[in-house]
């Protein structure tokens, strides 16, 4: 014996199926009718006139232009330069005045005082206690090396790192030179100072 729910569902299903078939059929017919217009269907929904007046009056006939006028354009351009004296065509010295906010100047000076740090590479030449790290840094700086030399703390030890290299290849090249003085030197990834352009 079929349940009461099945019978109710079957009745609803038949009426719902009719609605489901009627709605797409109406949409299809309305779209096919509006497809015959030049304009899309949504443009004519709120417009009183179906055809724009500007489209009626538009003329698509080509403009007749004599061939001589096309050939004479170079002569016209040349004649413009011939009429202008050579002194006016030369660049004259002038003055440029730049006005900028004092806040920008202050911001620029702060950037130069505290340049942002970026990730790069340095060469670790020593790792140990603080006394020896300070001595190695002093020896390295006094030997005439212009690259940055820093003492970094790795509790309970300290490291002396050298340089601000953006690429590992540049750090490896410098490492080969420093290996003679510091045989245990290695390249490490670290925050480096960005170069400030004056």
Describe the structure.
With 198 residues, the chain is α+β, with helices and mostly antiparallel strands. Among the domains are: 1-49; 111-193, Alpha-Beta Plaits, CATH 3.30.70.1070. Helix content is 46%, strand content 18%. It is built from eight helices and four strands; from the N terminus they run H-H-H-H-H-H-E-H-E-E-H-E. It has helices at residues 4-34, 53-57, 67-71, 73-83, 86-89, 102-113, 130-142, 168-178; strands at 117-128, 149-154, 157-165, 186-193. Strands 2-3-1-4 form a four-stranded antiparallel beta sheet. The longest helix is centred in the N-terminal third of the chain and has 31 residues, at 4-34. It is flat, with a radius of gyration of 41 Å. The protein starts with a helix and ends in a 5-residue tail after the last strand. The mean pLDDT is 75.
Order of helices and strands: HHHHHHEHEEHE
CATH top level class name of one domain: Alpha Beta
The span between the termini is 95 Å
Strand order of the largest sheet: 2-3-1-4
Overall average residue pLDDT: 75
What's the CATH topology label of one domain?
Answer: Alpha-Beta Plaits
The Rg value, from CA coordinates, equals 41 Å
Report low-confidence residues grouped into runs of 5 or more: none
How does CATH name the architecture of one domain?
2-Layer Sandwich
In total, the number of strands is 4
Instruction: Quickly count the helices.
Output: 8
| Strand proportion | 15-25%
**Category from helices, strands and their pairing:** alpha+beta
Q: What coarse outline follows from CA principal-axis ratios?
A: flat
Helix content: 40-55%
Largest sheet: 4 strands, antiparallel
Q: Tell me the CATH superfamily of one domain.
A: Sporulation related repeat
